[in-house]
Specification:
The protein has about 220 residues and is mainly alpha-helical. The chain folds into 2 domains: about 120 residues, no CATH class; about 90 residues, Tetratricopeptide repeat domain (Serine Threonine Protein Phosphatase 5, Tetratricopeptide repeat).
Length: about 220
């Protein structure tokens, strides 16, 4: 398959993902246009990127427990974020938004809440608002967090802003080729995590398009 045909097919595939995301949410945000710092490596480990506690709110026992805990400690940000993210996975947007806003009201300087809020919005298909929250989290981190390039690449790609997405994906590969520099590494990074098949397929499409367009092929040395 020649290069032009492959890129066309990749973009058509991405348009389907974009349309599916649009069906999931009507964004109330205008996505900021974020560009990577020139020649910077986004490889700083960020404690705020720790995984969220998973709470299955469809399970009556789990739901009763966390709701009872929050009735006693309504400003417990860890529980609010956990329940908010679980509600987002169930596409219960109002409930998710309520929990995240309560968590931020309790602690407006908690970078982890902004970061998780962004991923929750991403789960619900709202890329513009997700990027807005990630921008706040990155500003609080103050440097070049390792989680940022891949997150922005995914959201900008799903929004149809492919050129910007590929710029961020190039940074992701340059910063961590062992994570994002091959299909195998993508599978290893996403296995056993909160990645849907559609999200994993999108990452593979971004990688393959990036590889077709990148003039540099020796990513191991980058």
């Amino acid at each position: 398959m020649n290069r032009k045909l492959w890129i066309l097919l990749a973009l058509l595939s991405a348009s389907v993902v974009t349309a599916q995301a649009a069906e999931g949410a009507a964004s109330t945000c205008k996505a900021p246009t974020l560009t990577p710092d020139a020649n910077a490596r986004y490889d700083e480990m960020d404690p705020a990127s720790r995984p969220d506690r998973f709470v299955d709110m469809s399970d009556q026992v789990s739901a009763t427990y966390i709701n009872q805990e929050l009735s006693v400690a309504p400003r417990n940000t860890k529980l609010l974020v956990a329940r908010g993210y679980s509600n987002a996975q169930a596409h219960l947007r109002q409930a998710a938004e309520r929990d995240f806003k309560a968590a931020l009201a309790a602690n407006p300087k908690d970078e982890h809440t902004y970061l998780s809020y962004g991923w929750a919005l991403f789960e619900m298909g709202d890329d513009a608002c997700a990027i807005t929250q990630w921008q706040k989290a990155a500003a609080m981190q103050g440097g070049h967090p390792a989680w940022l390039p891949q997150a922005l690449a995914e959201s900008y790609w799903r929004m149809g802003r492919h050129a910007l997405a590929l710029r961020w994906y190039d940074v992701a590969v340059r910063s961590h080729p062992e994570r994002w520099g091959s299909v195998a590494s993508i599978h290893a990074m996403t296995a056993g995590r909160n990645y849907s098949d559609a999200q994993r397929d999108m990452l593979e499409t971004i990688f393959t398009t990036w590889k077709q367009q990148s003039p540099r092929t020796d990513i191991a040395s980058r």
